[in-house]
Design a protein that fits this description.
Blueprint: E1 3-6, E2 17-25, E3 29-37, E4 62-69, E5 75-80, E6 86-93, E7 96-97, E8 110-114, E9 117-124, E10 137-146, E11 152-156, E12 174-176
């Protein structure tokens, strides 16, 4: 599982670690798993709610995936809160929101939470992915973690800019090929 690190200008509470994994499957789509380990009590975790869409989830603890077809300017942003709320946004190019509506779907986030871990798992169906999930994808796995005092840390596999910027294409560090299941 790739390890994510906090942006150097926004350190995380001591002792926390974050890993994330992604698999692209022809039948199930993009399967994501995020695992925070360490002293979870140092984080502000929102209470569970009914799964529903919500905006501005990145202002609190939130797991994210930025997904694009390799070489394409357009990309899609998925946000998943430990509350089970979620959001999806389309961009035509770097930080340029698309006027076309994002695909209609409902995220089914599975959350496990204990004193030393927080896990979020979700599958994004092929129809909600660029290229219908039938082509290789370039992906940035990221997260925002809110500490108990309200400070935010920004986690990614790669931080290509002086300030946290998950939209920066050099941060789309994973290339995923479509796996098939027989």
């Amino acid at each position: 599982m790739p390890r994510l690190s906090p942006h150097p200008r926004h350190p995380a509470p001591s002792g926390l670690q974050l890993t994330a994994e992604a698999r692209l499957n022809a039948n199930t789509g993009l399967d994501l798993r995020y695992v925070v380990s360490g002293p979870i009590a140092q984080l502000r975790i929102p209470p569970l709610r009914l799964a529903s869409p919500a905006d501005q989830l990145w202002q609190h603890s939130c797991f994210e995936a930025f997904v694009a077809l390799g070489g394409a300017a357009a990309y899609r942003e998925f946000n998943f809160s430990p509350s089970r709320q979620w959001a999806v946004y389309d961009f035509d190019a770097y930080r340029q929101r698309s006027t076309a509506p994002a695909p209609a779907w409902s995220a089914n986030c599975r959350i496990e939470h204990g004193a030393e871990y927080l896990t979020l798992q979700v599958s994004i169906p092929p129809r909600a992915l660029p290229g219908g999930g039938r082509e290789p994808l370039q992906v940035a796995l990221t997260a925002v973690l809110e500490s108990a005092d309200g400070a935010l840390s920004y986690w990614a596999q790669r931080h290509p800019a002086a300030q946290p910027d998950f939209h920066h294409r050099e941060g789309f560090a994973l290339m995923l090929n479509v796996e098939s299941t027989a």
